[in-house]
Amino acid sequence: MPSYAYFLDIVKYTIAGLGVVWIAFYLIKPYLEKNEKIQLLEFKKSIANQTLPLRLQAYERIILFMERINPENMLVRLNAGNYTAAELHSIIISEIRNEYQHNITQQIYVTSRAWGVAKRVKEDTLNIAGAAFKSLPENASGLDLGKVMLVQLSQLENNPYELGAELLRKDLEDLF
Q: Are the C-beta atoms of residues 128 and 72 closer than 8 Å to each other?
């Protein structure tokens, strides 16, 4: 019988010990969860402090991209009068694509909406250049192409470059 009593004592102490561990775990669990949440928030804050300058720079770069492909600025920069319409059209297409490729990594730091605006402005610019070029006779000059592009741009109900910049500003306001 003594071994039966000894076995019963071991079971009692084991159950009591497990009960104490279980109670201690549930008393400490909220503290551990709170500590984990605090560490996660601190980590997120640290990441945000590191990425915020990169995100702001990305928005700046996208605005600059849109300004560089704006026909009002691009035609002056390219000196449109020195080319034929075909040469200038080719240069414009190349310039837009190069600018886009140069800024393509910025999509990592901006919202998908902001990147969508940049892509849309690029496509609108390509469409303006293409439509203007198709409307000209074969022997047209680069100056003629530039004039037609600017006329088409002025006839648009909403200037895509101003609209794009406004949408990016709103997106940036949402960031803060």
A: no
